[in-house]
Each structure stands twice: as C-alpha cells, then as structure tokens.
Amino acid sequence: MNHPVLAVLSGCMVLATSAASQAKPVTWTTPSAEEINAVYPEVESLYFDLHKNPELAMHEQQTAAKLAERVKALGYEVTTGVGGTGVVAVLRNGKGPTVLLRTDMDALPIGEETGLPFASHVVVKSDSGTSIPVMHACGHDIHMSSWIGTAKLMATNRDRWHGTLILIGQPAEETGEGAVAMIKDGLLTRFPKPDFALAIHDSANQPVGQVVFAPGYAFAAADSVDITIFGRGGHGARPQNTIDPVIIAARTVIALQTIVSRENNPFDPAVITVGAIRGGTKNSIIPDEVKLQLTVRSYKPEVRKRLLASIERVAKGEAIAGGALKEPLVKVTPAANAVYNDPELTKRLVATLRGVLGQAHVVEDEPTMGFEDFAEFNLAGIPSADFWVGAVEPGKFAAVQSRTDLPQLHSSTWAPDYTPTLKMVMVVETTELLELLGH
Ligand SMILES: [Zn+2]
Ligand SMILES: [Zn+2]
Predict the structure, then answer these.
(1) Which of 35, 55, 104, 106 is the catalytic position?
(2) Ligand 2 centre from 5 Cα, in Å?
(3) Residue 423 DSSP class
(4) Which ligand lies nearest the alpha carbon of 144?
(5) Confidence of residue 3 (pLDDT cuts 50, 70, 90)
(6) C-alpha to C-alpha distance for 144 and 160, rounded to whole angstroms
(7) What mean pLDDT, rounded, does the chain reach?
(8) pTM, whole model, 2 decimals?
(9) Nearest bound ligand to the CA of residue 409
C-alpha cells in the first residue's frame, strides 16, 4: 500500500493487495494520491448533484450548464450548444498533439430503486403528457464528475504536458444521436481536429480496480428494423376467406433466425432479435396486419449490410409464400455504428495503464454486442479508444456466483461503488492523457 496512486483507492482491496508488487514506480505520467484526493470533494459533490438531477437525451440543459461553468472556471475556452446541448472545452498548452476526451451526459427513463440518500426522484412529462421517471442508470454521472476532476488535474498540471486538450460533454449517447449531432455541428472543424479520441465507461460486470478493454471492435453496430406484414383479416372460424398475417409473422420470425445460423460466417458476430410482435385484438378475429420489431447487431459494415438485405428478402419471401396481396413494409432505423478501438492506440494505453495499475488490473475482455455512439470518432478517421472501468463494490462482486447476478447497467438498482470508481476514472483518464500529451 505504499504505492501512491493505488493508495488513493484504499476502498479497493483487490487493487491494493495484488497490484502494488507488479506496478512500476509512479512517474510524472500519473497524478499522485494527494492530487486525486485534493480534487475529490468537488468531484463527489458534483456526482451527488448530477445523480439527483438527471436529464434525458437531448434535454441535458442543466447538466451541460453545470459542466460548462466548471471548465470555464478552470481556464478552458468553452463553447456550449454544440449539436444540441453539447459542451466543448479547449485547453491550449503549446505545441503537441490534440487529444479529445468525451463524457456522455444523458440519463435514462427508469425509476430509481437504489434507496440511496442521493437517489433521483425526477419525473418529467413526455410530449404526450405521460410521466417518465429519470435516472442515471448507466453511470454517465460518474463519467461527468470524474471528467471534471480530470479537467482540473490537467489544468493545474500544465507543466507536465504540452499540446491541446479538448474535453467534450456529449448529449444523447443512449439514443445514439449525440456524437453525430456534435460532429455535424462542427466539432471536428470549428475546433482543433483531434489526433486521438478517448472515452471510458463504468462497468457493472467488473469490480472497482479493474480496467477492461477490447482491441478492435468493442461495441456493435445497431439497427432497429420494423416490419409490417399485411394480410386480409376476417372471422377466425372462416380462415379460408382470409390471408392470416399471424401465420406469416410466425414463419417470418423463425425464418429470420436462419440468417445468423445459416447465412452468416460463424466468425463474424451477428444478432437478430425479434423483440416485439404485435397483431390482432381477439381470439376469433384474424387481423389485417402484424408488426414485428427487431434489433440487429453486427461489427463489420459488410455483415451489417448483408443482414439487413437478408431480413428484407426473408420478410418478402414469407409474405409471398403466405399469399399476401401486398409486400411487407420493412423500415430500417440505424441506431449506431460499431465502436472500433484502434489497436495501436489501445496497445499504447494498455502498456501505460499496466505500468501504473499492474498487469492484473488492466485486462482484455470480450467485446459486447451493445452499442455506443463513440464509434463516430474512429469513423471520422481519429484513432479512438473506449475502455471499461470496474464500478462494482469488490465484496459484492466476490459474493455472487455469476456476473449476471449483479445489477446491470440500465437497471433501476444499479449503484456504482462511487468513491473508488470516481478516483479510478480520474487515474485512468489522466494517465491516458499524459501518455498522449506528456512526451
Ligand atoms: Zn447506457
Ligand atoms: Zn452508458
């Protein structure tokens, strides 16, 4: 426990006991425990405030204002309203690379059930007047609070690095709209163009103290597909006079499953899930139409294209087989592109993080078929890396049989072990930034 950086995470026994022996002595590339502890009270009070006052995607006005005010006070050049509620904070510190660090800002339409003293009780009205509870159930409040801590550490330690730091507060990660909106609004043209882009996400599958990464594809491309199958409704007792869209829909659902199992290369990850099937009103009535709602996930652009084409072919083919008089309607709504962690950048950051935290605490894990709109930076030609930071209290993590027994992200009971997680995120972010800007 004489390791200055690890000592700061003293709540985390896993990290404290096994990493110290493996870790290299701390150099100027990492802030000290004292520096982290000095900024922590401000970071924690912001965390409580943001957690209590969550805002939904593209409604992050108050949240963005809180971030903008703080980075402005630290001497950053701040622009607000980029791509909706987006915040861009630039710190120019001489010649050198330009590095972008993103935090996301949005919360989710979930009623909080953590019972925490700083739990959210926020309920907003939708455009149609229904009540929607709001909660930071994905940990974006963790990301924002530690991002402010990192902003301060970088601003007060300007003698340790040179180049340009761009911190962005991005709206609407959950809906996959925010990164695109900021880029469309000139994020990469009105401001210095980044040489690298970084992000972190808290993990509900890892104990505090663990940093987890996947080189290459890390998050999937996601598309929503809505299929409307048209039949001819009528009396349930006289099926001969109808074209039953329920039967066509049932066959379509089964046939769709053969796309991944029979047409796709098993080494190319792909998912087709029919999450909703809606049709009919009563036992004895054959409806006119049935609607299917699908989510489609993939990594490679060519696989994505083929899956979507196959879905359309299967839907149309089953409609013909069922004698439908009208082609089904197939509507594709893209949600996100696949996140690709630049392998070179990942290797570089992993080596540095391992030097600080110890080999056992920076581990490769399997990628996910979940999505994340951070993909847009790599697609814009900027080498990017998005790592997971463990946020589960280590005792809780050790007590469960399987990771799936833990509250997951987007759960009403997700409560990160916030103190060591906030500190860990600051350590990871500043270490990564100093690796890229500190030479
Ligand atoms: Zn989320
Ligand atoms: Zn998230």
Answers:
(1) 106
(2) 26
(3) H
(4) 2
(5) very low
(6) 23
(7) 93
(8) 0.89
(9) 1
106 belongs to the catalytic site: yes
Q: What is the pLDDT of residue 21?
A: 43
User: For residue 419, is pLDDT > 50?
Assistant: yes
Contact 233, 325 (CB under 8 A): no
The C-alpha atoms of residue 51 and residue 53 are separated, in whole angstroms, by: 5
Residue range 243-264: average pLDDT?
98
Distance between CA atoms of residues 39 and 403, nearest Å:
32
Ligand 2 centre to CA of 297 (Å) is 17
Mean pLDDT for the stretch of residues 124-129: 88
Give the model confidence (pLDDT) of 142-200 as tens digits: 999 999 999 999 999 999 999 999 999 999 999 999 999 999 999 999 999 999 999 99
Helix 33-52 × helix 140-156 angle, to 10°? 140
pLDDT digits (tens, 9 = 90+) for 38-48: 999 999 999 99
Report the separation in Å between the CA atom of 69 and the middle of ligand 2, taken as the mean of its atom positions.
23
Under a CB-based contact definition with an 8 Å cutoff, are residues 268 and 299 in contact?
Answer: yes
Distance CA 335, CA 375 (A): 11
Catalytic residue among 112, 173, 376, 386: 173
d(CA 53, CA 325): 52
Tell me the C-alpha distance between 341 and 298, whole Å. 15
Distance 390 CA to ligand 1 centre (A): 15
d(CA 314, ligand 2 centre) in Å: 33
Residue 85 CB contacts under 8 Å (≥ 6 apart), including other chains: 58, 59, 60, 61, 63, 64, 105, 169, 171
- DSSP H helices in 240-300: 245-258
- Name the closest ligand to CA 140: 2
pLDDT band at 5 (very low <50, low <70, confident <90, very high): low
Report CA(393)–ligand 1 centroid distance (Å): 20
Structure tokens at 323: 């004698």
CA–centroid distance, residue 410 to ligand 2 (Å): 8
Catalytic: 173?
yes
